[in-house]
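Hi all, a correction to my earlier message: I attached the wrong file for 4-hydroxy-3-methylbut-2-en-1-yl diphosphate synthase (flavodoxin). Here's the right sequence:
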Amino acid sequence: MQEPKPIELALPRVRESLRSEVVWGSRVVAVGGGAPVVVQSMTNTDTEQAVETALQVKELALAGSEMVRITVNTPEAAKAVPYIREQLDRMGIDVPLIGDFHFNGHRLLTEFPDCAQALSKYRINPGNVGKGDKHDRQFGQMIEAAVRWNKAIRIGVNWGSLDQELLASMMDENSRRAVPWDAKPVMYEALIASAIGSAKLAESMGMPARQIALSCKVSGVRDLIAVYRELGRRCNYPLHLGLTEAGMGTKGTVASSTALGVLLQEGIGDTIRVSLTPAPGESRTQEVVIASEILQSLGLRTFVPSVTACPGCGRTTSTTFQELTQQIDDFLRAQMPVWRVRYPGVEHLKVAVMGCIVNGPGESKHADIGISLPGTGEAPAAPVFIDGEKRMTLRGENIATDFQKVVEDYIAQRFTAAPSAAISA
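and the right structure:
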């Protein structure tokens, strides 16, 4: 009988790409070229409201967004950008800002040089920089600003605002084929041609290739996978990955996770954004949390301590373990902006909160610190396991509070505090 071979690990593939650098002051965010996949997000405030926008940028940055995009759509918004940057700098938030330009970006970047300098990157949509003879000239003005101020760019194509002249030309070309393609492959080809063609045009205008990132965003999961597989095959520019208009709540979360998970596992994607529609009253930071969880679940990045918890069943009719899981998860996330600086490595912590004796002790032993709460009919005792060994048993009505204190003490003892950490609150 042939000796069995070990099962191959499901490691993500590697796509070689250029490395772009998005810079503000001493902060350098590397995108592509083997750098860790970067999380980014976008504000939904009116950029003209500088203080409100700066506060939301801060909130997104503290949640883990490593770059934040803001809309720059009017002269008033362009005038506000330097003040937004100034407010962030005063708060100790050095996250790079990306300016999102459509239609009039050429004028805004030319007429408001302080705005052009305060941004770290420009998003350019080749589908709406101008038609006919104006296209290349106005596109060129944006590239000229990027070169002058040494800024990175993203050429962001979107199938909702695709260059109609290019699409019409490709449709005509398709009609002349002996066997014409279906409409969707022609659309895919137009998206990719617009992105790569615009990048080559930018290079011809003096833009360094390594400072160009591309995106071809669509709203269908399988469409996104098809387009990015081909885009990744045809070029070595860093790729911005995201499902545009993903939707709200469960739908947006599942669609984004499915599409991005497939592509990231194939090594496609150097920076990601989850375009989630927030529910009324929901924090904009939810899109950052989901993007971070996608990368962490794939083993590509580690942002926050992981909390393992059972789903519950007839053995766990008590809600105590559910409440404790929520409490611990919220507590760990809330502390991370401080702990990330104070306790280097704390993001690798593994916590288990289990609801009964079936898998509770075993799962808790696999975690750095875990608790197995009593299930229905079990003795009102909760053993706590630390580094694989049972260290104590918690009892009484304050098990949740007591366990949170145990977690805090464990973190303080295991992770060495940085002696002179500058913490942005």
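Sorry for the mix-up. Residues 55 and 336 are 18 Å apart (CA to CA).
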